[in-house]
Amino acid sequence: MEEMILNMGPQHPSTHGVLNFLIITDGEVIHQALPNVGYLHRGIEKLAEQTPYTTFIPFTDRIDYLSAMFANHVYVMAVETLANIEVPERGEYLRVIACELNRIASHLISTGALALDIGASTPFVHWIRERECINDIMEALCGARLTYSYMRVGGVSRDISQNIKDAVLKFLDHFEPIIDEYNRLISFNGIFIKRLANVAIISQVDAVNFGLVGPNLRGSGIEMDIRRAIPYGVYDRFDFKIPIGLGFQGTLGDSYDRYFVRILEMKESCSIVRQALETLPPGDIRTKIKRNLKIRENECYTCVESARGEMGIYLVSDGSDRPYRLKIKTGSFTAMSIVEKISQGLMVADLIALIGSLDVVAPEIDR
Amino acid sequence: MTYKGYDILALRFGKDTIIYCDKTLNPYIEVSSDQIQEVCIYIRYHPELKFSFFFSLSGVDYPEKNRITLVYHLFSMKLKTLCVLKASVNRNHPELESIESVWKTAGWFEREIHDLLGVNFIRHSNMKRLLLPDDWVGYPLRKDYKEPLLYHDMETSRDKPS
Asked: In the CATH hierarchy, which fold is given to the domain comprising A42-358?
């Protein structure tokens, strides 16, 4: 037996950003894969301590570029909780619509890129086409296609017009049948299933122990969703299911379960957007707040269910106009820490399936 | 965490060693730094508490009090509530028992805090820097941190673009 040390990344296409793995292998079998993170560390937490509360919002976009809306949301929620600011109902509904559209966009990239990573390039192109529609809607809604900065402390930046509403409904009518078409194209494809089913199984005990969140945790069969467990905003008014892994094509908690939970979640998100558009109340979209927002000494922890699971912010204020300490907890960070354990004994090619199915985004790990 | 949950803890550890404080928005429990591991094991496995989800671990630097406070956020599906534990360490000799053995994921959080705040976690399996390079000098999230001007003879700052 002869061990070989391989470097995967930091410029590897399937690591979704700048990530490096030190892989110790014996031929094709991995003995250990050690993740080496930090290439994208920008010190956002330190920057927060030097930035006034309201001007920090664009920084939060950069935590996770695929689902910027959730980082916006959790940050403004933290500030609102501390400063005791009420958000108008219409503002809350618009937040839900924007977040759920963003969740669909993020899952499109995640599931499409997983297929691309393991060798099927067609589905990715189809998903990118659908995502363009969401990007266009977002552009009309908040003026940006990727880094939205849509949320404001006290509400959202712009109201939704009738044109955008129609565009969203048109997109949903078009998109929902496409999910089934996509399933026929790739999800039930024999080769695709063989590459994912029974690969990199994460047991429930491990999932909790390693602090997995979101679709990764639910893929292991644990029904845990922040939208239900700690309801925030107006999520308690909508009717939606929480899809969990059932061992769809193999064992519970394998890569296929994590993949398929995301597909099912997109359907639920479509339904939430429809409900929110139907019941959208009239009124203001934003509460007026003081230009120079100062918050007296206090602290709080808020969390939302982002596309990559629970995203939390621990915010400490000290009476000045900027945070004393801001800690950002993200889903990719904990997902990354499990790779070292699960990768033992995998084939090198299956490591790609594991990372793809965990849906890690590098800037979110490093912040 | 509700007061009822605290009662169960206080019964085991005594009201003098763990202190309940509800002045902040999320009430927290202050634990002495040498008991943190015991409290974590108890709170995770006690049948009426079951705080099995580890949400986050953060460190906050308080130079004027000469201490670094570590804040643990835990969640229980059974009680549907958040629990905040706080443990403080001396800023000059920041040392604390690692809780990696209770939640595996805490290992990475502890490495991040070691990296950015310079806290040493005892009996941690791999106490190395996580995000910054191994040869970086200083701990950026400390309040008195000054960025080094050079790193490997490269300038770390640049003139503001005009």
From this structure: Cytochrome-c3 Hydrogenase; chain B (1.10.645)
Identity of the residue in A82, A224, A337 whose CB atom sits nearest the CB atom of B108: A337
Angle between the N-to-C axes of helices A255-278 and A89-117, in degrees from 0 to 180, rounded to the nearest 10? 150
For A299, the closest of B24, B52, B103 (CB atoms) is B24
3-state secondary structure of A356: helix
| The pLDDT value given to residue B153 | 83
CB contact under 8 A, B71 and A224: no
Q: Is B104 within 8 Å of A329 when comparing Cβ atoms? A: no
Q: Do B53 and A316 touch (CB under 8 A)?
A: no
CB contact under 8 A, A210 and B80: no
Chain B residues in contact with A312 (beta carbon < 8 A): 55-56, 73
Domain spans of chain A?
1-41, 42-358
Band (pLDDT 50/70/90 cuts) for residue B12 is confident
Verify whether the Cβ–Cβ distance B56 to A45 is below 8 Å. Answer: no
The pLDDT confidence band at residue B162, using thresholds 50, 70 and 90, is: low
Residue type, position B41, single letter: I
Q: What is the pLDDT confidence band of residue B2, given thresholds at 50, 70 and 90?
A: low
User: What residue ranges do the domains of chain B occupy?
Assistant: 3-155
Q: HSE, CB side, 13 Å, CA atoms: give it for residue B62.
A: 14
Contact at 8 Å (CB) between A339 and A319? no
Strand bridging mode A20-26 / A4-8: antiparallel
What residues does A17 pair with on adjacent strands? Answer: none
Residues on chain A touching B133 (C-beta within 8 angstroms): 38
Confidence of residue B3 (pLDDT cuts 50, 70, 90): low
User: Was domain B3-155 assigned CATH 3.30.460.80?
Assistant: yes
- Distance (Å, rounded) from C-alpha A94 to C-alpha A76? 14
Contact state of A325 with B105 under an 8 Å Cβ cutoff: no
CA atoms of A228 and A224, how far apart (whole Å): 8
Helical segments of chain A, H only: 44-48, 57-61, 68-83, 89-117, 122-142, 162-182, 190-196, 204-209, 214-219, 226-229, 255-278, 331-337, 339-342, 348-358, 362-366
What pLDDT is recorded for position A171? 92
A104 CB-near residues (< 8 Å, 6+ apart): A134, A175, A266, A269, A270
Q: Which residue of B has its CA nearest to A217?
A: B53
- What digits encode the pLDDT tens for the residues A115-161? 888 888 888 898 899 899 999 999 998 888 888 889 888 888 888 88
Of A208, A300, A336, the CB nearest to B53: A208
Query: For residues B59 and B38, what is the distance between their CA atoms, to the nearest angstrom?
Result: 20
Q: Give yes or no for residue B15 having a pLDDT over 80.
A: no
